[in-house]
Amino acid sequence: MTALGSDPAPEPADGSWTGAARRLLERRLPLNHLLPSRQPFFVGSWVYVFGVVAITALIWVVGSGVVLAFFGPGWWHVSSIGRFVNSIHFWAVQLLFFFVVLHLWGQYFMASWRDGRAKTWLVGVVVFVAALVTGFTGYISQQNLDAQWIAINAKDGINATGAGAFFNVLDFGQMYGIHVMLLPIIVTTLVVLHVLQVRLRGVVRPIEEPAVAAGRKPPEAGA
Amino acid sequence: MDAPATYVQFAFIVISVPNLLVIVGMVVVFILALLAPFPGHRVIDPDDDDRPR
């Protein structure tokens, strides 16, 4: 049962996975849900802005990170423009985590896992953990005293978990490779999946006003 | 800038002042987000959230 208003004519199943995938996407994620021009009235709150700001910060992180990866440590520590781009990367990460945590608080207090959104919540948790590991590998990829200090202090903890054999925080090449290639792909892919999941189910309705939220009673003007 | 950060202690909790300021700032921004009116907020079609479940 969908509320699309213009469901496409039923198409006979031809047994191909591409056709099945297309029909699934057309049914579950039509363009008017993927790129909506209107939102439910309860989305009119600054709390819903935190996630968008976090994604904006992520775009700045990835963009500045691409520039840093091209020119390398000899550039980001020495030249003035390199230090500037390095600072953009650093402060964008601070903004990212600042607003990711605010987004987490907002979604936690409105119990956003309700109404079939548990997978959306879980993917968000995995994104958060992956972002933490990305931040950690970034800190120890700086090629400065901070990086050495953090790596030296972290190695015993990592070794205590048993992961030190394949996650050596003292190995700059390994940490840098993971930081600039593996983890950014994981984080950005999961963020895209997270946004698609939100568009699939829509924004969770408020807890305190189920009648208004369900659309049975129109809210007061300006509410 | 290169000086060590000052730390504060509450019972078993030890935290640097910069980290404490960030956390306080997050709480302040969160409360402001709850209380501040959202600009250009209009009543929007509630049917927009009628999605397949």
Overall form of chain A: globular
**What is the chain-wise order of helices and strands of chain B?**
EEH
Strand content of chain B: 15-25%
- Helicity level of chain B: 25-40%
Instruction: Compute the average pLDDT of chain A.
Output: 87
The CATH superfamily title of chain A? Cytochrome Bc1 Complex, Chain C
Number of DSSP helical runs of chain B: 1
Low-confidence parts of chain B lasting 5 or more residues at pLDDT below 50?
none
In round numbers, the mean pLDDT of chain B is 82
Structural class of chain A: mainly alpha
The major pleated sheet of chain A works out as: none
Content-based structural category of chain B: alpha+beta
Number of strands of chain A: 0
Can you walk me through this structure?
The complex is a heterodimer of chains A (223) and B (53). Chain A is mostly helical. Chain A has nine helices and no strands. Chain A has a single domain, classed as Cytochrome Bc1 Complex, Chain C, CATH 1.20.810.10. In chain A, helix 3 runs antiparallel to helix 5 (80-109) and helix 5 packs antiparallel against helix 6. The longest helix of chain A has 30 residues, at 80-109. Chain A is globular and about 60 Å long. Chain A starts with 16 loop residues before the first helix and ends in a 10-residue tail after the last helix. Chain B has one domain. In chain B, strands 1-2 form a two-stranded antiparallel ribbon. In chain B, strand 1 and strand 2 form a beta hairpin. The longest helix of chain B is centred in the middle third of the chain and has 19 residues, at 17-35. The radius of gyration of chain B is 20 Å and the shape is elongated. The model of chain B has no long low-confidence stretch (mean pLDDT 82). The chains are: A mainly alpha (223), B alpha+beta (53). The interface between A and B is medium-sized, with 39 and 23 residues.
